[in-house]
Amino acid sequence: MSGSPSVRQPTYYLSHGGGPWPYMSGEFRSRYAWMEQALQDLPHQLPAPPTAVLVISGHWEADEFSISSGVSPGMVYDYHGFPEYTYRVKYPAPGSPRLADAVQDLLLKAGWNARLEPDRGLDHGAFSMLQPVFPNADVPVVQLSLKAGLDPSEHLAVGRAISPLRDEGVLILGSGMSYHNLRQFGPAGARPSILFDGWLRRVLLNSHSGERDEHLLHWAEAPAAREAHPREEHLLPLMVAVGAADGDVAECVFGEIFWGHMHVSSFRFGGQPGLGKFDLLADFALTGR
Fold it and tell me: How far apart are CA 224 and CA 197, in angstroms?
């Protein structure tokens, strides 16, 4: 991507919420008010407007790392049980074949198989998360898939491989949920989410980069790990974001008791310290109360 401005962007791991929530209204939408404010603040945390966004979503897995490469990506309505109109919403951001080629080139050079997918659209892990961040849909978006098997070491390594894109103005966003157990969604999710969120914060905020990576490789040994993530597809975008962070310091930019019960958080790696004060759980995390 020669010719892009040399502005090093931070990376993020963002909890993206449920389904098409930014396109809804009423009580369901109101439950996302704090998450929405945190996402709307994200552009103000950046050193410059991004040249493009690369999203790693928990909603796209492939047998090898795959990259959306179309000029005008369509929509993937990968949710169920929502109002009919939510299956017609649009997030008309352009794609970036140039960025897709750059991602593929970096992965191939690092020894990974990587294929371009020109027909791949944006899933809700991308468009629902991006709608509050860039509501004008005027920033080019490319998606990078997870790889089947969900090996944390592979995703950390791929994050390291794509890290140079940050210096060309590309904003790398891992989109998932720090707690994702739909069978324990509500009061039953309180205890496991508290335990896992506490561990995640300690690892990301208090460990140096080598320790951080090592802890994440063994995330399944964390307190309540498999209660928080029975299947880890919503956690693996964090591994890519951490790998791409290249040792940068983490900050928690969002935290709340989601839907009144579950601790949910988002993190930024790098950038100017002290930006993004939307962590309602900071005192709890420090005191355990």
Answer: 9
The full set of domain ranges for the chain reads 11-287
Q: What is the pLDDT of residues 138-152, one digit of tens each?
A: 999 999 999 999 999
Residue that has been written with the tokens 């790998």 in this structure: 243
**Amino acid (one-letter) located at 17:** G
Residue range 91-120: average pLDDT?
98
Here the tokens at position 52 are 């493009």
CB 123 within 8 A of CB 175: no
SS3 helix, strand, coil % of the chain, rounded to 5?
A: 45, 20, 35
What is the bridge-based pairing of β-strands 262-269 and 250-258?
A: antiparallel
Is residue 55 within 8 A of residue 241, CB to CB? The reply is: no
Give dist(CA 191, CA 263) in Å, integer.
9
Indicate the average pLDDT of the chain: 95
Let me know: does 285 contact 48? Beta carbons within 8 Å: no
- CA 252, CA 233: separation in Å to the nearest integer? 21
Superfamily of domain 11-287 in CATH is LigB-like (3.40.830.10)
